């Protein structure tokens, strides 16, 4: 055995030992991961996210994966000759489009993620918001068609899967008592599912580093804010554009019982492990204060 290997193994042991307090903290706790964006498109990043989730599951963390799939929906619509329309950043979803959304999210995307988690050594089960009436909704805005406003979360299907040792993989479609299907914003769905679980942490994977004081300068990342500080940052226009609905979802999750929420860059390899199992963390943590 050469010295390089001895040094490398010693480093590995040191990393594992340093992670021990964090492993102890999250063992048996529930963590919800909202997954989408570029981390979902890039195959190598997707593999790493699945590895992170399986590793957390193996050390006793109860992980729930809530996913979107906007790019895949748009791609499928294009193949079918249907042009996507958006109003205020939300997809206009007519009857034909909501059928495509259900097919892509609850079918292709959901089962691909389940299969990847299984291939990495995890035990996963895919469900949609329709299964067990997990997510109930009604019409959010008549201009948007079948885009849903969440009216109720029946969390029992997810807790049943967790108790049986599965990683629940939740696609963000919903239903109502009349049998309508709705397209639900992934961040909103993740916030409400995490709230219903009273999760220890909700991790919102995005395409930027977190909340930045200067949106063009990653070095201005704000590592931690309270809800009150967030409201002040709205007024200062530090939180603006597409970050506004994300922070709104963070506050919604905290209001519904989540302990803390982290907005972080899903494009960084193994960012979930960096956030949960190191003292540096990743992204911006939002807390009640």
Give the structure's gist in a few sentences.
This protein has 289 residues and is α/β, with parallel strands linked by helices. It has helices spanning 3-26, 38-41, 43-58, 70-79, 95-119, 156-163, 186-197, 227-235, 243-255, 271-277, and strands spanning 30-35, 62-67, 86-87, 90-91, 124-128, 135-139, 148-153, 167-171, 173-175, 181-183, 201-206, 224-226, 260-265, 284-287.
Overview of this structure, please?
The protein is of the alpha/beta class. The protein has one domain (27-287): Acetylglutamate kinase-like (Carbamate kinase, 3-Layer(aba) Sandwich). The chain is 44% helix and 21% strand. It has helices spanning 3-26, 38-41, 43-58, 70-79, 95-119, 156-163, 186-197, 227-235, 243-255, 271-277; strands at residues 30-35, 62-67, 86-87, 90-91, 124-128, 135-139, 148-153, 167-171, 173-175, 181-183, 201-206, 224-226, 260-265, 284-287. The strands form four sheets. It has an eight-stranded mixed beta sheet with strand order 5-8-2-1-11-13-14-12, sandwiched between helices. A hairpin with an 8-residue loop joins β6 and β7. It starts with a helix and ends with a strand. The model has no long low-confidence stretch (mean pLDDT 89).
């Amino acid at each position: 055995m050469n010295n390089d290997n001895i040094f490398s193994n010693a480093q590995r042991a040191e990393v594992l030992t340093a992670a021990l307090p964090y492993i102890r903290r999250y063992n048996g706790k529930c963590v919800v991961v909202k997954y989408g964006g570029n981390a979902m498109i890039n195959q190598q990043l997707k593999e790493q996210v699945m590895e992170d989730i399986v590793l957390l599951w193996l050390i006793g963390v109860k992980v729930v994966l809530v996913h979107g799939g906007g790019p895949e929906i748009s791609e499928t619509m294009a193949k079918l000759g249907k042009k996507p329309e958006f109003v205020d950043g939300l997809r206009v979803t007519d009857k034909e489009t909501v059928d495509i959304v259900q097919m892509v999210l609850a079918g292709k995307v959901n089962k691909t993620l389940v299969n990847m988690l299984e291939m990495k050594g995890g035990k996963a089960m895919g469900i949609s918001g329709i299964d067990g009436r997990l997510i109930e909704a009604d019409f959010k805005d008549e201009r948007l068609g079948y885009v849903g406003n969440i009216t109720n979360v029946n969390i029992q299907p997810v807790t049943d899967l967790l108790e049986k040792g599965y990683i629940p993989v939740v696609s963000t479609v919903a239903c109502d008592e009349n049998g309508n299907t709705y397209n639900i914003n992934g961040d909103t769905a993740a916030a409400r599912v995490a709230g219903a679980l009273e999760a220890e942490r909700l991790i919102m994977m995005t395409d930027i580093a977190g909340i930045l004081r200067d949106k063009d300068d990653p070095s201005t990342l704000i590592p931690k804010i309270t809800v009150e500080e967030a409201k002040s940052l709205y007024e200062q226009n530090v939180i603006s554009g597409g970050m506004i609905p994300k922070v709104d979802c963070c506050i919604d999750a905290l209001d519904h019982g989540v302990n803390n929420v982290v907005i972080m860059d899903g494009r960084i390899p193994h960012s979930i492990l960096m956030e949960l199992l190191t003292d540096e963390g990743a992204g911006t943590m939002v807390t009640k204060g």
